[in-house]
Structure formats: C-alpha cells, structure tokens
Specification:
The chain is α+β, with helices and mostly antiparallel strands and 373 residues long. The chain folds into three domains: 45 residues; 153 residues, Periplasmic binding protein-like II (D-Maltodextrin-Binding Protein, domain 2, 3-Layer(aba) Sandwich); 152 residues, Periplasmic binding protein-like II (D-Maltodextrin-Binding Protein, domain 2). 42% of the residues lie in helices and 14% in strands. Strands 3, 4, 5, 6, 7, 8, 9 and 10 form an eight-stranded mixed β-sheet that branches. A two-stranded parallel sheet has the order 1-2. β1, α3 and β2 form a beta-alpha-beta unit. α6 packs across α7 and α7 runs parallel beside α14.
Length: 373
C-alpha cells in the first residue's frame, strides 16, 4: 500500500530520519482522517445500490454482507443476474432518478469500462491502494479499474453428462444433443461474448476473428446441441442446461455449493483458454457517491481482495498480496493449479471491442437463434 512512500521513509538519509518519519506519520494520519471522513459521509447517505452481483459470483455474497455489517450501510441489490450491457443501460435509464432503481456502482467486462467513460456514464475515483493495481488494467484517470480475473471453463452436471467434454470441438458430439447453453445473451453479456471468442481461438483463429466462433455456434445449433436458454446454476443442476461455459471462479463456487448433489465437474478446455478481467466503476449519477467510494475502498483493501480470492477470482492486487505474503495458506490451498492457466490468452481492449461488434451485428444472421432467460 503506497510502496513508494513507505520506501522513502525507510531509505531516507540518516540525517533526515526524523523528518522522514514525521512526514510518513503525517501522511498516514492524513490518510486515516480522509478515510474516516468518507466513512462518516457514507454512513450519512445510509445506502449503496449495486447491480448484477449474484451472491455466488466470485463470493459477492460475503463481500456485500461484510461491507454492510462493517459500515452499517444497507446494500440495495438490483438485477443480480444482469449483464454488463444491462448495467450500463440501468445508468442511462436513471440519469435523473435518485431512487432505488439507480445504481451507484457497476462491475462490468473490461470492454465496457472505456465505453462507459466515453458515454460519460461514470466518474473518476482513485482508491488509496491505486498504485498496487496493475497499470494495464486501469484507466489512468481513475474512471475504471480491474477488480478480478478468471478463465472460461466448462461447467458440467456429471449426474447427467457422464463423459464431460474436454475441449470445444467435443461439444459437437451427438451425445451432447440438447445439452449445451450459454451463460448469457451473446449480443450483450460479456461472459457469453468472450465464450464465442474462446471458440474462435480453439479453432485456430484470433480472438477478434469472431466469425469463426459464430460459425461454430451455428454448427452447434444445427446439430441440435445448443439450447437457446441462458444457463444459470439452477438450470445446470436441474439438467435443463447440463453443460455451459462459465468463469472458472463461478463454476468452482457452484461445484462447492452443490456438494456433490448433483456432481459438478469444472474443466478448463485444452485449447481456447481465454482469461477475462472485470472492472469496477462509479456511476456519474450515483445517488450515494460517498457510499460508492467507500465500497471501492473496501473492495481494493486487503480484506476485500481476499474475499474475492476465497471465491476463486484472482483479484487485481493479487501480485501485491503475494509479494507481501498476505494470502492465508488455507485460501492458497484451494486455488486451481497454476499450470491450468499457462495457455490463457488475455484479449486486449481493442480485440474485445472488435469481437464484440462482430458478434452483436452477426449473431442473429449467422446463428439465427434468440437466447432468452
């Protein structure tokens, strides 16, 4: 936390040691005073409105409950299963609304951060741990910043699918007829959009060449293997959609939650392993701006970052936590082996934007099926 400032205190010349210590003490006191003022202002607002945060998504249930209890602020939760596109639309639709339907904060796919900034839907705020967030996953002006990442994996109900797929091409097998579904609308949901990009990579194309992924889904649909329903944990468990693609942290959390009833298998595919970063931002029209800033401070504190890590999401400040040996052994032991991520591809913003445009424009023409909730 503010490593450069700490080093300045430790490595200062001996003759200036007292002055350096005094400066660091003043800085720490100033920082503490600033945070206390923010806490007081947030408590006065009394509420935080979040959107599209399922409790089983990267441990958000614990995150929300801990924040609310810690600061005595009620958390109003909107549309838990909403997509990144729906989050931005909620801000647009509530620009002049200070009521409970107006979100204060959003958690969206990486490509949606710059879009929200361009549309002036979000406001800048740099958390106190700003310097430990990698530069390549944050807006330099503080409009948005990465929160966690994972890779796309197959989530399979083994009670129904005895022989789970090991790679993308396997999904075309006749034994999977009527069994595979996406986890969102591919025209608006980041997880579903990146799933199509992952399929493109699996078949030897670049992520941004989404046409290859669309053609694969066209084949899945024609084979009768694709179910045009948005897969959620309940539909996987019931067998309505026994195979889906989900971020590994969500799939692993669902596996733990099911406790073997049904048995859930989580498989990182052999090829087309795509990693995705999600980002946080504060609405430019937030009804509770101080609560929103305090929420960000909590998320990016060690406490908040470890809550995400307990939910199998690699938090933005992961390397900083590792460097300071701040990750408890019990949490580290539950993480998937590092080699599972060796082939992971992190699409750039430009690549994501290119794929997103192709998918939004051509899904209906190529795949010709409407994905519904």
């Amino acid at each position: 936390m503010h490593t450069a400032r700490v080093k300045a205190c430790v490595l200062g010349l001996a003759g200036a040691l007292f002055l350096g210590a005094a400066f660091c003490g003043t800085f720490a006191a100033s920082k503490s005073k600033s945070l206390n003022a923010l806490i007081a202002a947030a408590k006065k607002e009394g509420q935080l409105t979040v959107i599209a945060l399922p409790h089983d998504w990267v441990n958000y249930g614990e995150m929300i409950q801990t924040f609310s209890k810690k600061y005595g602020i009620r958390v109003n939760e909107l549309n838990p299963d909403g997509s990144s596109g729906e989050e931005l639309e909620a801000i647009r639709a509530n620009k002049n609304n200070k009521g409970p339907q107006a979100p204060d904060v959003i958690d969206v796919g990486l490509a949606f951060g710059p879009q929200a900034k361009q549309e002036k839907l979000i406001q800048p705020y740099k958390v106190s741990t700003w310097n430990t967030i990698p530069a390549n996953v944050k807006d330099p002006e503080g409009y948005w910043y990465g929160d966690y990442y994972g890779v796309l994996a197959f989530e399979v109900n083994k009670s129904i699918v005895k022989n789970p797929p090991a790679d993308w091409a396997d999904l075309l097998k006749p034994e999977y007829k009527g069994k595979f579904a996406l986890s969102g609308d591919p025209r608006t949901a980041n997880q579903a959009i990146m799933t199509i990009g992952a399929a493109s990579i699996s078949f030897g194309k670049k992520y941004e060449n989404a046409a290859a992924g669309l053609e694969f889904f066209n084949k899945l649909n024609k084979a009768g293997n694709f179910v045009p329903v948005i897969a959620v944990p309940g539909t996987v468990a019931s067998g309505e959609t026994p195979i889906t693609v989900r971020w590994d942290y969500n799939a692993l959390a669902n596996r733990d939650k099911s406790a073997g009833n049904p048995e859930i298998a989580v498989i990182i595919p052999r090829t087309g392993v795509v990693a995705g970063v999600y980002v946080q931002a504060i609405s430019a029209y937030a009804p509770h701006p101080n609560a929103a800033k305090l929420w960000m401070e909590f998320l990016y504190s060690d406490e908040g970052q470890l809550i995400w890590l307990k939910g199998y999401g690699h938090p933005a400040r992961y390397q900083d936590l590792v460097r300071r040996k701040a990750i408890p052994a019990a949490i580290a032991a539950k993480l998937p082996p590092a080699q599972a991520y060796e082939k992971a591809v992190f699409p750039t913003l430009e690549e994501q934007e290119a794929a997103k445009k192709i998918i939004a424009a051509d899904w209906d023409k190529v795949v010709q099926v409407d994905v519904t909730k």
